[in-house]
Design goal:
about 400 residues, alpha/beta, Aminopeptidase, Alpha-Beta Plaits, five-stranded antiparallel beta sheet, 11 helices, binds (2S)-amino(hydroxy)ethanoic acid, binds manganese (II) ion
Length: about 400
């Protein structure tokens, strides 16, 4: 049998590419399908029953002594563009290693265990995030007609990819909800690394809104159109973006405001832009603070003509299960793992799962806090501490009376 380190390192190498441009495992892409297929076979080779629902969420159920709701762990299989090796995937593979350790320790756990690999969390291919866990928890979402940058619809990509998974020896169904959900994840920020703490126990997750803002102009000749007669979408958009960043800089310290994507049409050097579309990602630790910022943001946007705004995501601030977190704090203390409690600035499937089942998160440090980039890194000893705590946490839940 693999050693723990070898198994986790080996799995991370197997499920990641070696491209130094980072991971581009966008939902329903070939690499995404290959990874979900490999995970299904890995689970089945270790005694799991596999379920695949119509969004491509994979649930691997491992047996318990009792026929009861499973104790679940897992995370998301997709990545951002040029993403890191650990965001999402560490929770899936670390969850697999934790479950394996439980079954190697002897008796069958009283309750069954479930490993979940959510189809999509990032919102990096289509303008909608958490589509996997939202489907898993029965939330309504209108995503079928959304298109990616090549014009492929969500529905086309989804049906093509899910068909390949559901052709395997799997139960084609949405999994019944588990008894609880614990997500192992890298912090994706600098706090644990700076505090030299190997474990973070997550109290809550930020509120998050995303928007698509389009400034409309008029395509025209760069050389013959007098400056005063232009409707230059880039000129207007750049002034609007500068005003929004000024507003964000003056807002509360816990606000994060990011313009991550800009698309221009026709995007040609000697043509005045007819349109400029950019995204907004803004987050706050409370719904009230986010609402205050959004109202100020809308006031700024209204000062500019020919601007349309589409909200593409709203997820409220979330307080995770205190009972599960306190149990993990006790276990970490018994295992002599120093830890700190912290709020997550990154969004997670846990904030969706938390709407239906008791949910908690375990963080491990991100080296220099970098994430969503090829430089994302966590040292193996920290990854293994996270797996060890997760194993003990799942065991405690699966074997309680
Ligand atoms: O964007 C986020 O916060 C998460 O990593 N999807
Ligand atoms: Mn993630
Ligand atoms: Mn992410």
């Amino acid at each position: 049998m693999f050693s723990e380190e070898c198994q986790l390192a080996d799995l991370l190498n197997q499920f990641n590419t070696t491209a130094d441009t980072g991971q581009n495992r966008l939902v329903y892409s070939e690499q995404w399908v290959h990874n979900q297929q490999t995970l299904i076979l890995l689970g089945q080779n270790h005694g799991a029953q596999a379920m695949v629902d119509d969004y491509g969420n994979v649930s691997l159920d491992f047996p318990g002594q009792e026929e009861t709701l499973p104790i679940a762990t897992g995370s998301h299989m997709d990545t951002v563009r040029q993403g890191g090796r650990y965001d999402g995937l560490y929770g899936v593979l670390g969850g697999f290693c934790a479950i394996q350790k439980m079954y190697q320790q002897g008796d069958l756990p009283k309750k069954p265990l479930r490993l979940i690999s959510f189809s999509e969390e990032e919102g990096s291919r289509f303008p909608a995030a958490f589509t996997g866990s939202k489907y898993y928890t029965g939330q309504q979402q209108q995503v079928a007609a959304l298109v990616d940058e090549t014009g492929i619809t969500f529905e086309q990509a989804r049906s093509n990819a899910v068909k390949q998974l559901q052709a395997m020896n799997v139960r084609r169904q949405r999994a019944p909800l588990p008894a609880s959900f614990t997500e192992l994840h890298i912090e994706q920020g600098p706090r644990l690394a700076q505090a030299h703490q190997p474990i973070g126990l997550v109290t809550g997750i930020v509120a998050q809104n995303r928007y698509k803002v389009t400034v409309h102009g008029q395509a025209n000749h760069a050389g013959t159109t007098p400056m005063a007669q232009r409707q230059d979408a880039i000129a207007t958009a750049s002034r609007l973006m500068a005003s929004l960043y000024d507003l964000a800089d003056k807002s509360s310290n816990s606000l994060t405001f990011t313009i991550g994507e800009i698309r221009v049409s026709p995007n040609v050097s000697n043509v005045i832009a007819e349109s400029c579309t950019f995204t907004i990602d803004c987050r706050e630790e409370s719904d009230e603070r986010l609402a205050t910022f959004l109202s100020a943001m809308n006031t700024v946007i209204k000062q500019f003509d020919n601007v349309t705004v589409e909200q593409t995501l709203h997820v409220p601030a979330t307080l995770l299960s205190q009972a599960l977190r306190q149990r993990n704090a006790k276990i970490a203390t018994q295992m002599k793992f120093p830890f700190q409690e912290l709020f997550s600035g990154a969004g997670h499937d846990s904030q969706i799962m938390n709407t239906v089942v008791p949910t908690t998160m375990i963080f491990v440090p991100s080296k220099t806090g970098i994430s969503h980039a090829p430089a994302e890194h966590t040292k193996m000893s920290d990854l293994l501490i996270g797996v060890a705590l997760l194993t003990a946490s799942l065991s405690a839940q699966a074997n309680e009376a």
